[in-house]
Design goal:
Structural class: mainly beta
CATH topology of one domain: Thrombin, subunit H
Shape: globular
Strand order of the largest sheet: 1-2-3-4
CATH architecture of one domain: Beta Barrel
Largest sheet: 4 strands, antiparallel
């Protein structure tokens, strides 16, 4: 019990420091990352909008929206209490959008799930434009619990974890409710993992649950740790990798009641690790990146980035790219662990961060360019090969 109370206090302190205030659904917050699809970048802004930006047009600094495929859609929630003449306010977006067959699925901290048609949004048609392909869940003014983790789509179903402790399964075409799981914990902030008909969810109270993807019923296997899990789970082959509040990265083979291995860092592994070719690359709040082999957890190398890491590393060609919360970006050799910081050209003393804003969202890569949405509500394009910022695009 003491461990779980301290876990909740620690989580509250981390969120307070990260957001400079409390978590709310009033916009001006959120960790929504960027996802590319067919040359278009989809992301959530800090003023509650989903935006589709043409990467080529943004590199040419054209007015927005002006190019093919570009649009912006505001998501709002009703205002409560005393207002200044407005009946609605922007909803906060913490999750990264998901693009499926020309549609964009997004979830909000206000407790809504939306499916947007890129074609309809590009024409600025009323929402939802069609019964099929565009929808909002719940359809009424009701909401489910705040949603922090990203949605997952498998076949014809959208899966979402909510802060009400439940997993929701929705029809991808109409948004109809397929099933709602029993409560799994006080809060579910994780992005679920789906494989072979099973859904795997990690919880703040230290469980990894397996649910049937067909009906949401619990499967026989449940893993319980002594401390709660802070990161979303990552599934590689039959091993679940997840960070916990006791500063450990856990590797748990599905079906086992004991960890395959545990690795102790200097702080929480808040960001989900990246797993590639039998190696786990894990960024930690202690400012380090650790490279560990998947089967035994043996450390190959560690790299000190000098600042808290809350965004998952990504692979760009033959390099590992890591961003720290203070705004630095590093390019690391994934085999040796040697790396360098991309310098800010305006800093003669070589101490200024590349991006003068906090980085707390997920990164993405398109054609060798890394795109980062920072907490100044700007989209940055970093050319990894040239080690420079190619673009700064204000989202407001």
């Amino acid at each position: 019990m003491k461990v779980r109370i301290l876990t909740c206090l620690g989580l509250f302190c981390f969120l307070a420091l990260s957001t400079n205030g409390c978590v709310s659904s009033g916009g001006q917050e959120g960790y929504s990352g960027v996802v590319p699809h067919d040359g278009i970048l989809y992301l959530g802004s800090m003023d509650g909008r989903i935006m589709a930006a043409n990467a080529s047009a943004r590199s040419e600094d054209l007015p927005f929206p002006s190019a093919d495929g570009e649009w912006s859609f505001a998501i709002t929630v009703p205002s409560k209490g005393i207002s200044c003449g407005s009946s609605s306010k922007p909803d906060s977006i913490y999750a990264t959008p998901l693009v499926v067959d020309g549609s964009v699925c997004i979830v909000t901290y206000g407790g809504k799930v939306l499916m947007l048609s890129s074609s309809a949004r590009n024409q600025d048609l009323s929402f939802p434009h069609l019964r099929s392909g565009e929808w909002i869940y719940p359809r009424t003014e009701d909401v489910i619990g705040p949603i922090v983790g990203s949605p997952v789509v498998v076949n014809d179903t959208v899966y979402v974890c909510s802060s009400d402790g439940k997993v929701y399964a929705l029809d991808i075409t109409y948004g109809d409710e397929k099933w709602i799981s029993a409560p799994l914990g006080e809060k579910l902030w994780a992005t679920p993992m789906v494989k072979d008909g099973a859904i795997y969810v990690s919880t703040f109270d230290g469980h990894i649950y397996a649910l049937s993807a067909e009906d949401g019923n619990s499967l026989p296997w449940v893993f319980e740790a002594e401390t709660g899990f802070v990161s979303s789970p990552v599934l590689y082959e039959d091993i679940v990798f997840v960070g916990s509040f006791d500063s450990k990265l856990h590797a748990v083979r599905i079906g086992d009641d004991k960890p395959l291995w545990e690795f102790l860092g200097g702080n929480w592994f808040w960001a989900a690790p990246l797993v590639s070719d039998g190696i786990v690359y894990a960024g930690c709040l202690d400012g380090k990146v650790y490279a560990l082999d998947t089967e035994r957890g043996r450390e190959s190398w560690e790299f000190d980035a000098g600042g808290r890491i809350v965004s998952s590393p990504i692979l760009v060609d033959d390099s590992l790219v890591v961003a720290t919360e203070p705004g630095n970006v590093f390019v690391i050799n994934p085999k040796t662990g040697s790396g360098e910081r991309i310098a800010n050209p305006d800093d003669s003393e070589n101490g200024k961060s590349l991006i003068d804003a906090r980085i707390q969202s997920s990164l993405c890569v398109l054609d060798g360019i890394v795109y980062i949405r920072a907490q100044d509500n700007c989209l940055y394009a970093v050319d990894v090969a040239k080690r420079e910022i190619k673009l700064k695009f204000p989202l407001a």
